[in-house]
Amino acid sequence: MVNMVPEGVEWTSFAIGRNQLPWVAQSVLLGGHVRVGLEDNLYLRKGVKATNAQLTAEVSRIVDSLGRKVASPNEAREMLGLEVH
């Protein structure tokens, strides 16, 4: 489906449950963005309940390890053409 996205479009993908963190890597490798949160996944790993802060830290680690940079809120707003605060 990524091949069907028009050139220059910002896109995001996500997965729920145990697939959330592996999918972060897949989305980044395909050139997309990611989102993460307890609304989609309650666990950091099998049997270990997570907080949003822990999930965000883990996603940041994954993104960094793949050579990409996590956007600040203002950078994300700029990418999406929203008003920057």
Give a description of the structure.
The chain has 85 residues and is of the alpha+beta class. It has one domain. The chain is globular and about 40 Å long. Helix 1 packs parallel to helix 2. The strands form 2 sheets. Strands 1-2 form a two-stranded parallel ribbon. Strands 3-4 form a two-stranded antiparallel ribbon. The model has no long low-confidence stretch (mean pLDDT 92). The protein contains 3 helices and 4 strands. 12% of the residues are buried.
Give a short synopsis of this structure.
This protein has 85 residues and is of the alpha+beta class. The chain has helices at residues 20-29, 52-65, 73-79; strands spanning 12-13, 33-34, 43-45, 48-49.
